[in-house]
Amino acid sequence: MTTETRTPETQPLRRTLPRIPDRFAAFGAVLIVVVVLAAVLAPWLAPYPVDDPRPLERLLPPSGAHWFGTDQVGRDVLTRILYGGRTSLFIAVAVLAVSALAGVTLGVVAGYAGGWIRDVIMRVTDVFLAFPALLLSLALAVVLQPGVNTVILAIAVTWWPWYTRLAASMAASIATRPYVDAARCLGVPAPLIILRHVLPNSLTPVLVQLSLDAGGVILTSAALSYLGLGAQEPTAEWGLMVQQGQTLFTTNWWVVTFPGLAILVTAFAFNVLGEGLRNALDPRRAVK
Amino acid sequence: MTMLRAELRADRVTLGYGRRPVVHDVSIDITEGGVGLIGESGSGKTTLARAFLGLLSPISGNIWYGDQTLKKADMRKFRRDVQPVFQAEALDPRMRVGTSIAEALPRAARSRVPDLLEQVGLDPELAGRRPHELSGGQRQRVVIARALAVGPRLLILDEPTSALDVTVQARVLDLLASLDTERLLITHNLAVVERLCRTSHVLFAGRVVESGPTADLLANPAHPYTRALRDAVPKLGGDPPEAKGRTEAVPAATGCPFRLRCPLAVAACEQAPEPRDVQGRQVACHRAEDVLT
Amino acid sequence: MSDHLIEARDLRVSYGGRVVAEVPRLDVGAGECVAIVGESGSGKSTTLLSLLGLTQNAEISGQVRVCGVDVLTASPRALRELRGARAALVMQSPHAALSPATRLGVLMRRALKLHGVRDVDRTMARAMEEVLLDRELLRRYPHEVSGGQAQRFAIALAIALGAEVILADEPTSALDVTVQAEVVGVLRRLRAERDLALLLVSHDLALVSTIADRVLVMKDGAVVESGPAATVLAEPSHPYTRELLEALP
């Protein structure tokens, strides 16, 4: 039997699609590895103790002794950034793990099942989306102790519905694919269909979204820290550093600029990685 | 043979999504020798196929499976007996095709995958490939192998070859014709119906407008729509196909749905025609006699 | 200088050294219809796109003249003018070529103004009439028209802009047969009335046999047979052409 494999006519066309080169994605991945390593190895890398205010060395500009300068109470900014990465990354990972797990589970069920099951899940989702995120977090903080765990809970509570929506719309479209109908006609039970066909084929945008969201979570946790609901002094956290340093921007730019850059670089790296994932996870592109 | 009731049949089913019906009051028996369901886009043919597969419940009427309606039937047995063959895209893009084929097989029977692949004319080695690593014709054969895995007695074929190149299409049709199962074939392609189905039904706007032996139907249509369809198919070296009537005219909401496109429409067509017996077939047209001459 | 509107010699299109289409000779004169037939992967669409300089990242050699413009050496600007007005491309998926948020009338008016067509209203009305479309359609958005209507609109746009050549890539394969008949009817009439040159890429030999004067049969990037449609399809000399014909249902 002759095997015409992939047609030369479609291949060149695919090549014309705008594509982020793989090298770029690899660069993002390397950046993330660097950021994660820096955070994990902070106790060994940091030139100074994390909480060591020296009133006489307040607001020193960057120099050989303090590469990124010192802050308003005389702590080394580089040290604070290295340690702050631990807090910020932990918050991001925790929030996204909780949101994705809850959101995607509910989403694929809603999207596949349709009907009243979908209606119930999506209405609950809408209720959560209707609450202003900060208000809900404030309420939570009143009940709970402010701190990193509260931040995680507060952000996750307002974050998961987006994953539900994303997963539900993906799953609903997957559920109409002929291969899902074929599985149903073979008598495969619904939970297995969801697990084998709907979930894996809905995941790509979720993974991409996760990478793209990492930066957003870090920024949101910064906002909560500012309101006194998040990480508390003396915990080092990027958002907290930016918020505390922002009034000093015109006079002592380094206090806010370096933690800001840390957030930017990390968010950017996750973004690039997200794009790379999108390409790599597409089975039609993986074979090239 | 024809004395027996068909194993699977639609009895005055009206089908739709939400409230709006797209198939109206259709009765079709899946008899021996292959049954064709001919229609263009929007005719409701795929909706009917989904109902026959138990994927869509009728708004009214029933799908009968033996002497039970599908609502009450033993679905485990039904799922073994009746299998779909959709277009080649009906494979999970992430799943190796061997896994797809084995999906519904009990663990002990998974060793049959190579045999199934051979049965549809594929190299058993291909089991480890993913769908995008196969050609369109190979994918279509995998879809057929998956359907055959559970040993069905009836295949519901929904446009099984329309996405394929002609030479590949011819070979897949040979394969389908050689299979030892009953079949309901849904297509817009008259030549494919001629090849695989003894009986055919022509659907227009969710209604059966003409039913009968396929050969008679195509040689000598009794409904103006069947005739328009047949005449529109280009023939090798023949005259250019001619469009009769305005194809963009939407199906009429009352009376004969085809009347706004029909070159023979008369005042009487504002009354919906009941299907009636004309020269050995069922035709829903007031002017069937004029079409036949 | 010949009077062919499309003229290609020793055309060879390759991607990264791999030749995907090789056409030694292709001529389409005014009022003529030439068809390239073949299966997927034969290089037929690539050939058509290369004639308008629309293949990206491809290495093309040979000579191509369309409406007198040397496509392979022309400036991007000259190519845009050629594609915009004198040589029109009609694609398989008619809706893909229409911007979803623009009414058809607005789209056509803009295109005509861009190309300095005078008497826009009359030109539009006449073009719509020629493809048998109701003028009311101009008020609609692309999603509000059927595939056959969108395809005829694409043809109307081409003739309103004064196209002398229409290059059509599977223009009817996404359409129902009854609708296909209508679109083909429009193309045939325009060809006769306006002396349009028509280059048709299709997998459907039966369809091609009813409309084309000459046929090129392509397989795996090469032209295996060419000649008058009647001869090639009635007495094919190449085994592949025979195989194609025998496969016809």
From TrEMBL, chain A:
Identification of the protein by name: Peptide/nickel transport system permease protein
A GO CC annotation given for this chain: plasma membrane
Localization of this protein: Cell membrane
GO biological process: transmembrane transport
Chain ranges of the ABC transmembrane type-1 domain: 85-274
Family designation: Belongs to the binding-protein-dependent transport system permease family.
Membrane disposition: Multi-pass membrane protein
CDD domains associated with the record: TM_PBP2 (cd06261)
Domain of life of the source: Bacteria
Species, as recorded: Nonomuraea fuscirosea
Transmembrane segments: 24-46, 89-115, 127-160, 253-274
Pfam families (alphabetical): BPD_transp_1, OppC_N
InterPro entries with a match to the protein in the record: BP-dependent_transpt_permease, MetI-like, MetI-like_sf, OppC_N
Main location: membrane
TrEMBL record, chain B:
PANTHER family for this protein: D,D-DIPEPTIDE TRANSPORT ATP-BINDING PROTEIN DDPF-RELATED, TRANSPORT ATP-BINDING PROTEIN
Name this polypeptide is given: Peptide/nickel transport system ATP-binding protein
SMART domains given in the database record: AAA (SM00382)
Family: Belongs to the ABC transporter superfamily.
One GO term (biological process): transmembrane transport
Record key words, sorted: ATP-binding, Nucleotide-binding, Transport
Residue span(s) of domain ABC transporter: 8-230
Gene Ontology MF: a single term: ATP hydrolysis activity
UniProt lineage: Bacteria, Bacillati, Actinomycetota, Actinomycetes, Streptosporangiales
PROSITE patterns the UniProt entry points to: ABC_TRANSPORTER_1 (PS00211), ABC_TRANSPORTER_2 (PS50893)
Source species, domain of life: Bacteria
InterPro entries given in the database record: AAA+_ATPase, ABC_transp_ATP-bind, ABC_transporter-like_ATP-bd, ABC_transporter-like_CS, Oligopep_ABC_C, P-loop_NTPase
Originating organism: Nonomuraea fuscirosea
Record keyword ATP-binding present: yes
Automatic annotation (TrEMBL), chain C:
Keywords: ATP-binding, Cell membrane, Membrane, Nucleotide-binding, Transport
Major localisation: membrane
GO molecular function: ATP binding; ATP hydrolysis activity
The keyword ATP-binding is annotated on this UniProt entry: yes
Pfam short name (any one): ABC_tran
Gene3D superfamilies: P-loop containing nucleotide triphosphate hydrolases
InterPro entries, per database record: AAA+_ATPase, ABC_Ni/Peptide_Import, ABC_transporter-like_ATP-bd, ABC_transporter-like_CS, P-loop_NTPase
Residue span, ABC transporter domain: 6-245
Cellular component GO terms held in the UniProt record: plasma membrane
Name of the protein this chain belongs to: ABC-type dipeptide/oligopeptide/nickel transport system ATPase component
